[in-house]
Structures are given as structure tokens and as C-alpha cells.
Amino acid sequence: MPAQHRFASSDVVAAVSVALVLIPQSLAYAEIAQVPPAYGLLAAAIPPVAAAFFVSSRYLQTGPVAITSLLVAGSLSGLAEPFTAEYIRLAALLALVVGVVRLGLGLLRAGAIAYLMSQPVLAGFTTAAGIIIAASQLDTALGVSAPVEGIFAEAVWSATHPSAWDPASVVIAVLTIVAILTGPRVHKLFPGVLVAMAGALAYSLLAGFDGPVVGEAAEATLRVSLALPWSSLVDLLIPGAVIAVVGFAEPSAIARTYAALDRESWDPDREFISQGVANVAAGLTGAFPVGGSFSRSSIARISGARSRWAGAITGLVVAAFLPFTSVLSDLPRAVLSATVIAAVVKLIRVRPLLTIARISRPQGVVAIGTFVATLVFSESVEQAILVGVGLGVTVHLWRELAVRVHSSYHDGVLTLAPAGVLFFGSSPPLDQAFVDELAAHPETQRIILDLGDLGRIDYTGALALRSVAERAESAGIAVDLVNVPGHSTRTLMRVWEEDRPLP
Fold first, then answer.
1. DSSP string spanning 92-147?
2. What is the pTM of this model?
3. Quick check: 450 pLDDT over 90?
């Protein structure tokens, strides 16, 4: 049995270490998804157990994550009022859609789709998403209720009206952020978020904190149900597909990173299946879409996880805590907001966007365009992903169409050297260059078509080459092909005339 499948006693230690972080994080990420906090615990209980039977990476920790939670809020904001029963049921149905899509991709062995989200798109989206998430939590962290609507409008109002701040909430938020960010300096496994939550809860109970608290919404029951709003299924298909692909970027990156460090293989198809099963479990138990967490997976690795069962035990620990969630009713919401802010700070990375733009202007347009689109569509960020992908495809097609034809002339010999990809969309520049160069050098007696700089030649591109040759020969000009790419020889041989042998 492979090492990652064999249970080890250290898996229990790792699982408990992760659970101590996961419990408060799941409450916080539920706030981002705009469902009651306890539904974060539901998303952290059974999904990790279900995923453990199929994962490829021994360290991958499944559960609520910031980006996926933001995508959930964006997908459902126009369909129901956040935090309502209808919204919660829609979130569960969305999880089911995400799960089925990921399962389908995995079973069809389409795991390679994980590589199709370009880095410029991901860089632009995650940076903007981090800003949106932090902005959405600012009013709660400051203990205010902004009299305006809109994520950024509320954040600006909250930041510019210090007289409305609740001092206790501000102090709790600041201490929580300090505990989370400085905890690793004390020890790499120091559960700063748990310490902050315990301290804030104790203060709330002993000092009679009168700011916003979790309240009765901390109660949720683990049960399996198919009583979902199926009439809204069509509305959730595209958002579900977007979350299924975009939300897979993080778990796939986790698995690839740790597989490389440990010199182990990993299977993206299995990972798609594991994340699909986890989301199906989330949907059936009334939770919201889940993904893989880099921070929690890192904790699992550092604390000694030896097999995939560490993730399952983590889920069981959270499930065991569910009957006692009522003890969190007096937990200040400022703790949850501060936990979110501290978690997403690392996502806000502007320098990589500038680096991309400096290295490649077209890809910089994709990265910065996705960044701006995400901020503009902050209330429905899944649309920004589509904009980013569209920009990426447009830039790719533009570059594919931009076949450059280098030419030189000497003693009656005209050399045409196209560079790029010669396909149906990029063939016209070659034909135009042929016409222009013959007009400039009417004394041409021989044409050399140098194909050494072509990355690919499709059927239409081969036809374009033959057309150039036929027209040249009809004018009494000899034509030779040189440096034919090996991968294109077969296509050219089929298209080219049999009496015109290839070099």
C-alpha cells in the first residue's frame, strides 16, 4: 500500500492541529459566503472525510476557503437574501453542482484543465478578490453598521467615520490580527486564531460585550437532505462550473507543490474526484462549496501528517464539535472578520501584476484587466473570471494571428521565413507578404520558404503554402521548402503535391 494511504499515529496529531485552526476559520469563511457561521462548521465536517477516500495528496486539507466562499456570495447574491433559509438552500445546491462538475471532469480524466487557468488571470483575480474580501469585513471588524450599500461604499464609510467605531470590537479585531500574524513567530504550529477566539469569547462572557456577536445562528444540525431549490438549478449551472474550475486552482497547486517537495507523483484526475465528492457531501449536508486550503495543508505537513486519513480525522474532530456550537453564541463577530482579513492579506500582491506587465505587455493586459474587472464586478465576481478568461483567449488569438514574415532578397532568390503559428486564422499575412515581395522584386527567379520558425502548421496553413508555391510556379518561379518542422511534415506531405517532394 502506498505510504500516503497507510494510517499513522502522527495523523491524529496533525488532524487535531488542523482542526484547531479550521473551526474558527470555517466560522469566518461562512461570513464571506454570507451564510450563518455554523454552516462553515458543516462545510468543515463531512466534506474532508468524503475527500479523504479519493485524494492524491496526503496533505491536502479540504473545507471552507476564502476565494471559493467569495465566489459563492457573488453567485447567489442576486438570487436570494444572504443569511436566509432560501439562500442557505441555494448554497447547498450550488455545492452539489460544483461537486458534480468536478466529479465529471475527474472521471473523464480531464484533470489537465487545472492548468488552463493562466497565471495572469489567477494573479489579477486573487489580488482583487483579497481586496474585496478584506473590504467586506471592515465594517464588522470596526463594529459599525454602514448606512450605505455596496462592498466598497460600506468599507469607505466605515473607515472614514471613526466616531461610529465600537472600541471593544476594534481592540478585539486588532488583537486577533496580531495573534494570527505573529503566532508563527512563537511556534510554527501556534494556533493564533484559536487563541484569539478563546480570548474574545472569554472577554464577551466576563465583561458583557454588547457589540455584534455570532448569536443563535451558531446552531446547525448535521443531516442529509435533498430538499433543495431544484427550480433554480439552471441559474446555478454556469456559476457552479466557474467555481468548479477556478476553485480547483488552489488544491491543485497544493498537491503539485508538496508532491514536488516529497518527490511523489500526484494525479489531477483523482484530485478532481476527491474535491467533487467533497462538494457533493457538502451539498447533501446543507453546507456550501468547499476547496483545498494552502495554510491548513501546510499545518498538516508540518505537524506530521503521513497519510490522507489526516484529513478525514480533521473532519471527524469538527463533526464531534457540532453539538457544542451553541457555546460560540457570544463570540464577537469582530473575531471572525479579523480572521478573514488576516487570512486574505497574503492574497493582495500587486507587485506580481506589475512584473507580469513589465515582462509581457499582452499578459499584463490580461492580469490588470482581470484585476480591474474583479473590482468592478465585486458583487458578482464570477463574471470577472469570465472577463479574465476572455481577455486571455483574445490575447492568445491575437498573438496566434500575428504571424511575422521575414524576407530577404539576393541575386534573384527571395527568401520568405514566416514565424509563429500558421493556421487558418494566420495564413493571410503569408499570402500578402508573397504578393508584396514579388511586387518589390519582380526579377525573382526562385523562392525559398524557410519554415524553421513556425511552431505549428495546420491543414489550412499547409494549403496556404501550397497556394503560394502554385502561383509562383505558374509565373515561372521555382519554389523550395527548407527547415520543415518535424511535427508538421506529415500534414505537409498530405497536402503537398506528390511530385513536389519535401526536403
1. HHHHHHHHHHHHHHHHTT-GGGGG-S-HHHHHHHHHHHHHHHHHHHHHHHHT---S
2. 0.79
3. no
